[in-house]
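Subject: Predicted fold for tRNA 2-selenouridine synthase, 355 residues

User T.R. writes:
Posting the sequence so we have a shared reference for the thread.
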Amino acid sequence: MKNLLVSLEKAGDFDEIIDVRTPLEFAEDHIPGALNAPVLSNEERVLVGTTYKQVSPFEGTRIGAALVARNIAHHLETTFADRPRNWRPLIYCWRGGKRSGSVTTLFNMIGWQARQLDGGYKSYRRATLEALDTLPKTLNYIVLVGPTGSRKTHLLSALNQAGAQTLDLEALAAHRGSLLGAWAGVPQPSQKRFDTLLVSALREFDPGRPVFIEAESRRIGSVTLPLALLDTFHQAACVKVLSSREDRATFLLHDYAHLFDNPEALKAQLQRMIGLHSRERVMGWQRLVDENRRAELAHELIERHYDPAYARSSHQHFAQLPHALQLSFRPNDADVVEQAKSLLVHFDSRASAVV
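User M.O. replies:
I've generated the structure tokens; pasting them so everyone works from the same file.
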């Protein structure tokens, strides 16, 4: 079998990458572009593992082999029925063991030029972690800094439309970053999946051009940013996005409307702020929820929670903030892309002056 093993660096040489792990393993994370063709279902993998430990390794292996053979046969009759004779797939499982080995062997017996990924998904995960330590340092960032509700994400989108390189960490994390920032009905990716998405995004950038990024804390909901990225953009040039408190409150009311539609869930979220704020203050906010006093709650959260947290965090972490360009962003105007283009012109002219 050793002659059928290939390293991760050779993955681009193949027609298709096939992940034969369970759907749950695949959903947690997978090599970009891989097709999931599980040789064991989620339940079957549990059955095999339980039998292996509680009955005997032989019995677990026998049952597993029967299930794998049956599932491979199904894939041959369905998923892979139209693959040509000269098809070259790369097969992987968790660590390059029996699951991917079985498929690779059988595919080669059929006549396909299949190969097995040496080390399986674990080798890919190791490479991802190594990339997270090095890739962020190869790029030059410009950080959009501003308090919650100043529409930094909207400006980031406008910059993207204007042709800038942008890294939207909140989109990758499926979370707005704040304590109340969960996306309605959208689960966050696993940490492993987020890491994969982040590395894929970083690899798309041209190191010769700046990357605009929104200021974030280390955690965005349940996922964590790599230290190499944080350390690099904490030293980067900053744009301070200015917006009136009234406009910010209006935005929060719009963006968090789904929370007000579920008062008990919102009150539970506010309950988590005890420790950051006194119990009495949090209970006061919860009463505002009960009384449907949305605007008052939005102003309270901005004044007593978001703005103090922003002041502490931004001045502590962003070394270039005292020298930041101040931008009065008008997110509700029709010319948001033109505003973004003006910002790009500023940085282009500054770069030309340095050269």
